[in-house]
Specification:
The chain has 14 helices and 24 strands. The chain is of the alpha/beta class. It has 3 domains: about 280 residues, FAD/NAD(P)-binding domain (3-Layer(bba) Sandwich); about 100 residues, Flavocytochrome C3, Chain A, domain 1, CATH 3.90.700.10; about 100 residues, Methane Monooxygenase Hydroxylase, Chain G, domain 1 (Up-down Bundle), CATH 1.20.58.100. Strands 2, 3, 9, 10, 11, 12 and 19 form a 7-stranded mixed β-sheet that branches. Helix 1 packs parallel to helix 11, helix 3 crosses helix 4 and helix 12 runs antiparallel to helix 13. The relative contact order is 0.18. It binds succinic acid. The site of succinic acid (SIN) has 10 residues, from helix 7.
Length: about 525
């Protein structure tokens, strides 16, 4: 395979550093993995594109799911996860998730994360498709910020872990299917440097920024997946994009998540005529799996010629609403809405990628020495539709398993570094803003929650228009990001075209049935 890079470089001309672990990404998966390795005395560098807390983790509201209540069990959590996953979860991966999850959450508490309690006991809430109240939350609806804050504090105190903010991983250095390090761009100096690691871990999160309407931070541009694909790693399940059903929809306001926990506490979804519609679509009504709620909302929007439905909390005790959802309440108040009284206008938006870099149960990718965890990875734990609040847990459980796996091998520096270079790329500057506007329009129109062969083929022809870019260097970090987004968008459209059925979050208007034949994964590599 000819190596495919974003820029020209020659490692012999570049400064280099050697670490035990090179971790790319600073959300829950990256930081918890770093701390776990750091506790073993390993030297860890964390490369992160912007500030340490620019992550999806920091924005998470609802919480983290774990079977901690006496009325709950990992078996029940297993059954719920499998049911939401629409026949595509890897059963072994889910078993690991639900069985190791409670200990990982206890670890998180030992690291300083404080979850809400009632009468001294953990206060657990419910979300869609959970049969029990098993979601831990913090400061009501600011769970992610609490977790990110605790991990950030611990990482900053840890003498074994160095965090490099404003550093963007550009490409992996892979030879004969083994990863030797990462080429990194320092956004402050504009210089490249090589970080060699006995273990390189991608924990770069998702790709929500490919969609105009999404719940993700700006950094969520799919870099890790694009980089791994360019390097020849296997990629799996990219057709499965989870759209969150309830994202604030007001003209001029940024898309802001209205947590599923709001429905968990009893809020209703109503259409523009005040009709509570979810009981007509599913026996679990507002707590049906997310993909079901999203399609129900899209049907209501079409039937009522509207662009939004509403979340109604007015029947819930106002004190409960204020106590449980202070962040949502504050944000909505900024737009003149009193959530204890006024219906909140909402619409679906892109939220989470179930697919990603294929890994085994220890986070190993198809490239030796390259690991992945968190949203960028795909151990098959979420199947075709993730159960709410399983994602933070996934980052913890599989992050730790990577360190356990790496521990079994001797971490050492090879006698001689392999050198890498690329000089075949011409100069050229793409209009990355124009590219991104086009990409988001295409993703919105053809690669949203409802897809057809015709639309997906149009999307692919849009992406192929940019193939020529592969012969030129990316001009800077924004163009690197834009190219990564093109790479990932093309993969999503291709995977979605190949899967000629509807399952979980992937709905094909031209193939509306779920087919036994398709109870399998699509795995592609370059
Ligand atoms: C939410 O709070 O609704 C998001 C939780 C999740 O995506 O797991």
């Amino acid at each position: 395979m000819t190596p495919d890079y974003l820029v020209n470089f020659d490692t012999r001309q570049l400064p280099r550093e050697h670490w035990d672990y090179v971790i790319i990404g600073s959300g829950i998966a990256g930081l918890y993995t770093a701390l776990t390795a750091g506790r073993l005395g390993k030297r860890v560098v964390v490369i992160t594109k912007r500030a340490i807390d620019d992550s999806n983790t920091d924005k998470a509201q609802g919480g983290i799911a774990a079977a901690l209540d006496t009325t709950d069990s990992p078996d029940l959590h297993f059954t719920d996860t499998l049911a939401a996953g629409a026949g595509l979860c890897d059963r072994d991966a889910v078993k690991i998730l639900v069985n190791e999850g409670p200990d990982r959450v206890r670890d998180l508490m030992d690291l300083g994360a404080r979850f809400d309690r009632k009468d001294g006991e953990l206060a657990l809430t419910r979300e869609g498709a959970h049969s029990r109240r098993r979601i831990l939350h913090a400061s009501g609806d600011a769970t992610g910020a609490e977790i990110q804050g605790a991990l950030t504090r611990r990482v900053r105190e840890d003498g074994n872990v160095l965090v490099l903010e404003n550093h963007m991983a550009v490409d992996l250095l892979v030879h004969q299917n083994a990863c030797h390090g990462v080429l990194v761009y320092n956004r402050g100096t504009g210089k490249l440097k090589v970080y060699r690691g006995a273990a390189v871990i991608i924990a770069t999160g998702g790709m929500g920024m490919l969609y105009e309407h999404n719940t993700n931070p700006e950094v969520a541009t799919g870099d890790g997946i694009a980089m791994a694909f360019r390097a020849g790693a296997e990629i799996m399940d990219m057709e499965f994009i989870q759209f969150h059903p309830t994202v604030l929809s007001l003209p001029g306001a940024p898309r802001f998540l209205i947590s599923e926990a709001v429905r968990g506490e009893g809020a209703y979804l109503i259409n523009r005529y005040g009709d509570r519609f979810m009981p007509r679509y599913h026996e679990l009504a507002e707590l049906a799996p997310r993909d079901v709620v999203v399609r129900a909302i899209l049907t209501e929007l079409a039937n009522t010629a509207s662009e939004k439905v509403f979340l109604d909390l007015s029947h819930l005790p106002p004190d409960l609403v204020r106590e449980r959802f202070p962040t949502i309440g504050r944000t909505c108040a900024g737009y003149g809405l009193d959530i204890t009284r006024d219906p909140i206008p909402v619409a679906p938006a892109a939220h989470y990628l179930m697919g990603g870099i294929k890994t085994n149960l220890n986070g190993e990718t198809s490239i030796r020495g390259l690991y992945a965890c968190g949203e960028a990875a795909c151990p098959g734990v979420h199947g075709a539709n993730r159960l709410a609040s399983n994602s933070l847990l996934d980052g913890l459980v599989f992050g730790r398993r990577i360190v356990e796996c790496v521990k079994k091998y001797r971490l050492g520096r090879p006698e001689k570094d392999l050198e890498f270079s690329c000089s075949r790329l011409g100069r050229g500057q793409a209009d990355h803003q124009g590219m991104l506007a086009g990409l988001r329009a295409v993703m919105n129109q053809y690669v949203g929650p409802v897809r057809t062969a015709q639309g997906l083929t149009r999307a692919l022809s849009f992406f192929s228009r940019y193939d020529y870019l592969k012969k030129t260097e990316a001009a800077g970090p924004l163009e690197m990001e834009a190219r990564n987004m093109l790479e990932v968008g093309g993969l999503i459209a291709l995977f979605a075209l190949i899967r000629t059925e509807s399952r979980g979050s992937h709905y094909r208007l031209d193939f509306p049935e779920t087919l036994d034949y398709w109870r399998k994964h699509i795995i592609l590599k370059k």
